[in-house]
Amino acid sequence: MKIVVVDGHALNPGDLSWQPLENFGEVTVYARTPHEKLVERCQEADIVLTNKAKFDRETLLELTHLKYIGVLATGYDLIDLETAKASNIVVTNIPAYGAIAVAQHTFALMLALINKVTEHDQSVKAGEWTNNPDWCYWKGPFHTLNGRRLGIIGFGKIGHKVAEVAKAFGMRMFYNNLSRKTNVYAQFAEYEEIFEKCDIVTLHLPLDDTNRGFVNKSLLSRMQKSAILINTSRGGLINEQDLADALNSGQIAGAGLDVLNTEPPAADNPL
User: Fold this and answer.
1) Which of 95, 102, 159, 167 is the most buried (most CB within 10 A)?
2) pLDDT at 199
């Protein structure tokens, strides 16, 4: 059995061993694989392990030996599932492996914006505190998370973890999900209501053709000028030009983004 790891550096930057995989077959690990090299490198593979490689219809149809794709991440939007199913290729992901880490990072972005961490870091290094006449120094009003309204879009395992942390901060929570779920922390609300009433909106849902770019000018225009948007799920959920316009015009106060439509970002990315 031939096993090919197509983006090994992202999966294992050097702190783990690939040796256990060798118990199951012949293993080939590539640190990175450009899309145009996928077919060549996976042509004889029975199993492919990946994180962010794109297996579209054209690619999958060329991989006639392939039986299994293991997506070692939560999102699987880069795999053409319809073609994989028609070709009898099993596709799996790891839906909950990073729930705690992603929830933590969500609040890292949230607190960085609320507490103006970057602005303070830059201004102190620029000598502004040194030249300040008073011992106390801040860049604008200080806000707390306690009592603030948090809107959670997508209420799976990660969304639930975010709600647990938000409860500890004393936040008031609203959520939206395909299915309504009983939750002692959060109250169900429609998208429009969440964007209108919440101080912070955070995205935690998979990307598909039904929600691509759904965070657009229409929804962003509903947000308060003091509101912030957090995205630690998929960049394609947001219309990036609309978000850039909202930020530049002062329509919203800020955005904390862990993901973008194209990664790494293009030089002309509006954000």
Assistant:
1) 159
2) 98
From residue 171, give the alpha-carbon distance in Å to each of 47, 110, 196, 240. Answer: 45, 13, 17, 28
What is the mean pLDDT of the segment spanning 60-79?
Answer: 94
Q: Which amino acid is at 198?
A: C
Q: Nearest to residue 199, comparing CAs of 217, 174, 181?
A: 174
- Tell me: pLDDT of 4 over 80: yes
Quick check: 182 pLDDT over 80? no
Residue 29: per-residue pLDDT:
97
Q: Which residue has the tokens 């919203």?
A: 252
With a CB cutoff of 8 Å and minimum separation 6, the contacts of 242 are 215, 216, 217, 220
* Average pLDDT taken over every residue of the chain: 94
E runs forming strands in the chain: 2-5, 26-29, 47-50, 68-71, 90-92, 149-153, 172-176, 186-188, 200-203, 228-231, 254-257
Residues of the chain within CATH 3.40.50.720 domain(s) are: 2-92, 99-257
Burial class (CB in 10 A: 0-12, 13-18, 19+), 139: middle
pTM: 0.85
User: Does the domain at residues 2-92 carry the CATH identifier 3.40.50.720?
Assistant: yes
Q: What are phi and psi of 245, to 5 degrees?
A: -65, -40
Architecture of domain 99-257: 3-Layer(aba) Sandwich (3.40)
Q: Residue 226 is encoded by which pair of tokens?
A: 């003091």
